[in-house]
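Task: sequence in, structure out. Protein: NAD-dependent epimerase/dehydratase family protein.
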Amino acid sequence: MILVVGATGQLGGSIARALLDSGKAVRVLVRDGSSFDDPRAETVLGDLKDPDSLREACRGVDVVVTTANAIAPRRAEDTIESVDRLGNRNLIAAAQAEGVGHFVFVSVLGAGADHVVPFVRAKGETEQALGESGLSWTILQPDPFMDVWFPFIIGPALEGGAVTLVGEGKHRHSMVAMQDVVGYAVAAVEREEAANRVLAIGGEPVTWRDVVDTFSEVLGREIPVQTVPPGEPVPGLPDFVAELLASLELYESPLDMSELSRTFGVKTTSLHDFVRGFVAAGD
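Result:
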């Protein structure tokens, strides 16, 4: 039995459905008032802030996969402290107590306990706690999700407006398609080679300028670009998005996925292929 925590979200739900499609028995943690839309999965009521409910959810489970986070909180009581830090600690403790065999944690690339961004720092603290737990584990560290960030950044251009970049948009990052991360999450459940490894996951290294140019090519028109200095408010964007975008201007994160792709059999989605699919889905 595989417990998926965060299955009511986009990534967690995709992972749960992929596991179900592969014939796995899947249990999903849902909160009061929420539901999971695939009847093939067993559902269990619980909350990361309720340790007793997590013990029940982990009972009889072989693998825990968690994608839950409070980056875009759905309830007032959901905070980085209560979910990403303490909630994940509660889940690790429940997995230990119930004898779970393996724990898959979806973190972020660059996570560290001393990171300046609170969300990324909480991910790093959870990675550290998991490493010290005595559990078998796999940590997935995806670079920014194209599925998540492109609607924020490129959305206005699809309606004829300008793209607003934080900084000059010339730092390279290996932005990743969510479907690729789903593939590695399934591999982390199925493959012994993933045990006790940190898997940094990304696509081809690109800049935000590359992203804009690719959308211009696919759309067949030039997209105007305006820039905002890091740390300044960005019109139309939530503060947490602007903060994370500003942090991407402090470093680069190019990844070579060739070896990992061969090892786990996950094909890397190119920027061009993703953009073509993204635009087609909006037509």
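Residues 145-175+202-253+260-283 form a domain with the UDP-galactose 4-epimerase; domain 1 fold (CATH 3.90.25.10).
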